[in-house]
Amino acid sequence: MPNRNSFSEYFTCKRILSCIVILTFMIHHMLRLNISIAIVEMTIHNNSNASVKGPRYHWNEEEKNEILGSFFWGYFVMQIPGGRLSEIFGPRIVLGTGLLIAALLTILTPVTCKWGFYWVVLARFALGLSLGVQWPSIPPLAAKWVSSTDTSKFMAHMMGSALGAALTLPMCGHLIAQFGWPSVFYVTGTLTLLCTIAWFYLAYDSPEQHPRISDKEREALKAEVNYNQIEKNNKSPPWGKMFTSGPVWALIVGNSFSSFTVFIALFQMPSYISQVLHMDIMVNGWLSGLPHIVRYTFAVIWSYLADKEVKKGRFSRTTIRKACNTIAFLGAASFFTIQAIWGYSWIVSVIVFTGSFALLSFTTPGILANCVDIAPAYSGTLLALSHVPACVFGYFSTKIVGFFTKDEQNFQQWSYIFWIVVGVYLFASIFFIVFGSGEVQSWHPKIVKDAEMNQLRNEQDQPLTPPS
What we know:
Layout: H1 4-10, H2 13-42, H3 61-77, H4 79-89, H5 91-107, H6 109-115, H7 117-131, H8 134-145, H9 151-155, H10 160-179, H11 182-202, H12 215-224, H13 239-243, H14 246-267, H15 269-275, H16 281-312, H17 317-342, H18 346-360, H19 363-368, H20 370-374, H21 379-405, H22 411-435, H23 450-460
Helix pairs in contact: 2-10, 2-11, 3-7, 3-21, 4-5, 4-8, 4-21, 5-7, 5-8, 5-11, 6-7, 8-21, 10-16, 14-21, 14-22, 15-16, 16-17, 16-18, 17-18, 17-22, 21-22
């Protein structure tokens, strides 16, 4: 049997942190998507053959979409505040508080339904506010726990959201069939509460603050993490320089445009499979979830390979980031060119969506890691800046699909949408090649490593903080 020391050496605090980050992002998408299937049984007008388990409400299609869409407005609002709050107060308290509020709101959702339509809208809006801090909270965490050569692998844990998306719908469908739609909110809310407790117990802003980390691991992390002398950042970002920075705009454009297809697949693919490809609901569920499983799997693989190249030092970080994004965007554009021509075949459609998501996973080491590359002290703010237009793109993706398919759902109408996707990816690829970078920018505060800090302390025999 392995002894206790070998167990603790393998399950280090850093590895446990990685596991809890994956879990929180699975929970994130679980809370986002649970109502999308529950609302079918929550409304009085539906074609479900399931027996009625739980109250039903007289919500028309416009009201149903208002409930579903209210989440995104709250989510949109909290992106930049979430990034700055994480940089100032630390990701542990910001993300943990967001999860706790989200858990309570989810458990209370059946109660708000009894109170009335506008209470449900308000609850979903508040849920968007609470979960809106999550994505921009992770880059500041990576800056303290992960070396610059392992950033891509750590940021790939955020793709746990894809696993959450793939698992949520079948799980919620089973709960509704067995116990009624209110059980969806009780179960997912309770799981979120348990995840919140685990987060506060296992996650800390830096190795120095972790009460249970071994001295050996702490010293090892100090030696390898370049940015652990970046303290909680109370100084306002240099907004003017950031908004005139080419690499910042490359990050914004890349993240926004890569989200375009993700949102279409997340919210529109089931409709396409049902109404254009004419597949039954069971097959639909599996085909809709497959690209998200592939997305997570390949995000981990590509991130591992990208970090391996960074460690070898054969190519600059800028070259690696540009190569990853070029493969992602040009590869996806090629797949969707095929879809625009032959997408009436369900076999072609499955191959295209699955293959394009496998290649789009290159944006994890290409874009998500890039915000830590160019400005680690403001990495949360940068990811939030790129996420704001990504949310807008998600909203407009529904409008674009609605515009082309409002009269009839057929392949001809959808082919126009696929050609738009091709154009979006071609533009994003060229833009990042021209303006992207993997180096810390000149407007960033000076980074002081441990060795330099110790030298300064020895010379002046007093505590010092890194100069700005």
